Amino acid sequence: MEHPRRLIDLHTHSTASDGTVSPSDLIDLADRRKLAAVAITDHDTTTGLPAAVARAERYPQLHLIPGIEISAMFSENPGGIMHILGLGVDPDSPSLKKLCRHLRQQREQRNPRIIAKLQSLGIDIEMDDVLQQVPGSQNPDERIVGRVHMAKVLVNKGFAKSTQEAFDRYLGGDAPAFVDKERLTPREAITGIVDSGGAAVIAHPAQLRCCNSAQLRRLLKELIAVGLTGLECYHSQHTPEQTRLYLDFARELNLLVTGGSDYHGLGKPDTPLGVPRVPLSVIRDDWAQKWFGDRA
Ligand code: AMP
Ligand code: ZN
Ligand code: FE
Ligand code: FE
After folding, report:
1. How confident is the model at residue 296 (pLDDT cuts 50, 70, 90)?
2. pLDDT for 177-208, tens place per residue?
3. How many Å apart are CA 266 and CA 272, to the nearest integer?
4. Which of 59, 125, 127, 198 has the lowest CB atom count within 10 Å?
5. Is the CB of 237 under 6 A from ligand 1?
6. Closest protein CA for atom 10 of ligand 1
7. How far apart are CA 137 and CA 143, in angstroms?
8. Which of the two residues, 294 and 211, has the higher pLDDT score?
9. Which residues are CB-contacts of 14 (< 8 A; sequence separation ≥ 6)?
């Protein structure tokens, strides 16, 4: 049967990480936007998924693809970052649970170090202030606490006018309270995702900051050798030229094409859900069958 809806958004963040919209509200919104499919891909966690799954039962025309976004170790290019999306993961799989537990522990060690640096800069800030900025669950095992929440405290206390200024002055990579995250290797992230049944997809490849096509091709081939499934060709921050380039690479290397907005709610007010418009038809048949069955 033809799917009556045509557009998908396979990259979104909820309050389970640093988005401002709850998982269930995000599902409501995806249905209002008439999307055929939405993936919730919170940073380092799948804890938003059960609420989203429950809400998605109301909307037979909307497919929820359970996902995650993991930051991997990458130091080849100045300013370059590597984020890996897991799409269609099983949140109950032991490999993914283990990986998420590890990532949470790393954050629990890092957050007090950032707070201590902020305090040493004369800022009156405690971990409790930060936790108050984390909506959703009060259960420490079900929340991801990070720099975006700290930025909100800095804004509320008058140390910065905006989240962006809080990053520029205090929390960003070149700022005095920066503490880097311990990251998984790309192989570890990809293996964890693939072992949990998901497609491992390089998110927003533009952010790798590859200096030329040859470097990107080599990098993708290395990642394919450790199990990479796909490439996020469509993303709200890609130019049309970049999108075309990534589509060419995906075709050449037989990578699954995906796309999404990287929606964060009010956290990124200029990035609405469902933009760019990504047709359901870009999803390769094997994965379309897996995710959408005969509705694709
Ligand atoms: P964390 O995972 O705690 O390191 O926080 C990462 C998040 O902080 C990213 O997903 C962005 O939303 C945000 N972020 C990182 N760097 C910046 C920056 N320079 N300016 C604004 N937001 C940033
Ligand atoms: Zn984010
Ligand atoms: Fe990302
Ligand atoms: Fe993202």
Report:
1. low
2. 999 988 999 999 999 999 999 999 999 999 99
3. 9
4. 127
5. no
6. 18
7. 6
8. 211
9. 21, 22, 23, 26, 40, 42, 48, 52, 265
- Walk across the sheet containing 63-72 and list its strands: 256-260, 230-235, 199-202, 82-87, 63-72, 37-40, 7-9, 278-279
Of ligand 1's atoms, which has the minimum distance to the CA of residue 43? 2
Atom of ligand 1 nearest to the CA of 149: 3
Does 83 sit in the ligand 1 pocket, CB within 6 Å?
no
Strands 199-202 and 82-87: antiparallel
Does ligand 1 lie within 6 Å of residue 170's CB atom? Answer: no
Domains observed in the chain: 7-100+196-295 (3.20.20.140)
Question: Does 69 sit in the ligand 1 pocket, CB within 6 Å?
Answer: no
Q: Per-residue pLDDT tens for 214-235?
A: 999 999 999 999 999 999 999 9
C-alpha to C-alpha distance for 264 and 222, rounded to whole angstroms: 30
pLDDT at site 3: 62
Band (pLDDT 50/70/90 cuts) for residue 264 is: very high
pLDDT of residue 226: 98
172 lines ligand 1 (CB under 6 A): yes
Burial (0-12, 13-18, 19+ Cβ within 10 Å), 266 = exposed
Q: Are strands 199-202 and 63-72 parallel, antiparallel or unpaired?
A: unpaired
